[in-house]
TrEMBL record:
SUPFAM superfamilies: 6-phosphogluconate dehydrogenase C-terminal domain-like (SSF48179), NAD(P)-binding Rossmann-fold domains (SSF51735). It comes from Microvirga terrae. This is Mannitol dehydrogenase family protein. Residues 30-275 form the Mannitol dehydrogenase N-terminal domain. Signal peptide: none annotated. Residues 284-477 form the Mannitol dehydrogenase C-terminal domain. Keywords: Oxidoreductase. PANTHER family: MANNITOL DEHYDROGENASE 2-RELATED, MANNITOL DEHYDROGENASE DSF1-RELATED. InterPro entries: 6-PGluconate_DH-like_C_sf, 6PGD_dom2, Mannitol_DH, Mannitol_DH/Oxidoreductase, Mannitol_DH_C, Mannitol_DH_N, NAD(P)-bd_dom_sf.
Length: 492
């Protein structure tokens, strides 16, 4: 077994591998991060690593709310890990040092609350995925019947959920006269700052009406748009990167060259100068968010369901099929673009061209199955908001509805060859039951799934233009299979 990447082995890494240009021992903790997955480590942790040389106050304590995997990998490495940036031109490796410590919340609940309540902590960032907000995806309101919410309201001092941890930490700060931290969500939710604020305010109100008012009046929750494609790390990645380092890194992260972070500048307790690392600070994130969620993530989910059903393993494999490229270009140009309000100075044609190239990046093995996860939480902001805008203008939803139909076909849990699909979704069991009862009839299946209010709301199921288009596309998928359906679509 070769040595491990850590503070001691850092100096002996081969030349050409960039490493922290600051003294890690001099760092303080200014940020507590919840949800220390690959995305955080390839995005916010990198922007922060870039500015720690100028300002060592913003080191990160990062927590996993569930699994100990990241702790087990990074603790023996003093929090260090490799960032691999891959494209057709090759791979660049860099060691990131901004994470000072990893905490596994269920094992060290009090430690995490302590870190969050510490006066030095001025920002709590989050990447807990869409489902981590315990909200109703269709309305954005706190789901008060969510088992974690019910638990956390009963046991305030030992929370499980992100809202539970944040509200308890804010309660402790308030009691101790420490100003609240800024809550910075970095998940792909619609109006993510406003959504998290609403969820936290309601949660706090249920704890104590005064605390609810305090959160409403005093806690700043800027919205953000985050973008970087970060597929799950594979064993081949680990092996290749270990070889290049000459020491073992148990959990490197692999990503693309592109990165973007747009943030509303509302940080009453201060913030790192992330703009020095390329982040953009703006007054209103919404136009950027719509552009990104609808063009990138809407296309991604469409590619994931149709690509998976067509037998393609990765996004790049799917995009090697010209019919899919035409479908996605059509989706973006014809159906999404007319719904967007342009961010100032944006060049949309260049943005869309870059997206196609990013999806085609053959060096990234981004599995369609990975993106297909949690569709119930993703569909509303990725496809259905666009659908609503289109319907309001009386415009076509031919491709958007194909994406929704492919999701329906996918959550039946049986692929086109009759093999099981490992559907990962907080609603998977309910969706599967509905599908089993409906059987392989497009009408029955679509009808049963439209009734899932948390996804489709009260309006869409009543609109025959929507239900008709989705049902017709679902029938096509059953008759022809996804690959032929996409090929025919592209030929039209
Ligand atoms: C993807 C996103 O897994 C998914 O659902 O669509 O993680 C996507 O890669 C990022 O949002 C890109 O910024």
């Amino acid at each position: 077994m070769p040595d491990r990447l850590n503070d001691d082995s850092l100096a002996d890494l081969p030349e050409g591998i960039r490493r922290p240009a600051y003294d890690r021992r001099a760092l303080k903790t200014g940020i507590v991060h919840l949800g220390v997955g690959a995305f955080h480590r390839a995005h916010q942790a990198v922007y922060t690593d870039d500015v720690l040389g100028q300002d060592p106050r913003w080191g990160i304590v990062a927590a996993s709310l569930r699994s100990p995997d990241t702790y087990d990998a990074l603790q023996p490495q003093d929090g260090l890990y490799t960032l691999s940036v891959r494209s057709q031109d090759g791979e660049a490796l860099r060691i990131i040092g901004s994470i000072r410590r990893v905490i596994v919340a269920p094992r060290a609940t009090e430690d995490l609350l302590d870190a969050m309540a510490d006066p030095q902590t001025r920002i709590v960032t989050l990447t807990v995925t869409e489902k981590g907000y315990c909200h109703d995806p269709a309305t954005g309101a706190l789901n008060e019947a969510h088992p974690d919410v019910v638990h956390d309201l009963a046991y305030l001092k030992t929370p499980r959920s992100a809202p539970g941890f944040i509200v308890e930490a804010l309660r402790r700060r308030r009691r101790a006269g420490i100003p609240p931290f800024t809550v910075l969500t970095c998940d792909n939710l619609p109006s993510n700052g406003r959504t998290v604020k609403r969820v936290l305010t309601r949660f706090a109100e249920l704890v104590d009406p005064d605390l609810g008012r305090f959160v409403a009046d005093q806690v700043s929750c800027p919205s953000t748009m985050v973008d970087r494609i970060v597929p799950a790390t594979s064993d081949q990645d680990r092996e290749r990167i270990g070889q290049a380092l000459g020491v073992e890194d148990a959990w490197p992260v692999v990503t693309e060259p592109f990165t973007q972070w747009v943030i509303e500048d509302r940080f009453p307790q201060g913030r790192p100068a992330w703009e020095m690392a390329g982040a953009e600070f703006v007054a209103d994130v919404e136009p950027y968010e719509h552009m990104k969620l609808r063009l990138l993530n809407g296309s991604h989910s469409t590619l994931a369901y149709l690509g998976y059903l067509s037998g393609y393993e990765t996004v790049a494999d799917t995009m090697a099929d010209p019919a899919f490229v035409r479908l996605i270009e059509g989706l973006m140009d014809e159906e999404v673009t007319p719904t967007l309000h342009m961010p100032p100075g944006a060049d949309l044609s260049a943005y869309k061209r870059a997206l196609i190239a990013r999806f085609k990046n053959p060096a990234l093995k981004h599995r369609t199955w990975q993106i297909a996860m949690d569709g119930s939480q993703k569909l509303p902001q990725r496809l259905l908001g666009t659908v609503r805008d289109r319907l309001q203008g009386g415009a076509s939803i031919a491709r958007l509805s194909l994406g929704v139909a492919a999701w329906m076909r996918y959550v039946t849990g049986i692929d086109e060859k009759g093999a099981p699909i490992d559907v990962r979704d907080p609603m998977a069991t309910r969706l599967r039951e509905l599908a089993d009862r409906a059987g392989p009839s497009a009408d029955a299946l679509a009808g049963a799934l439209f009734a899932v209010r948390e996804i489709f709301g009260d309006d869409l199921p009543k609109d025959p233009r929507f239900t008709g288009a989705v049902t017709a596309n679902l029938a096509r998928l059953y008759e022809r299979g996804a690959k032929r359906a996409v090929a025919e679509f592209a030929a039209e």
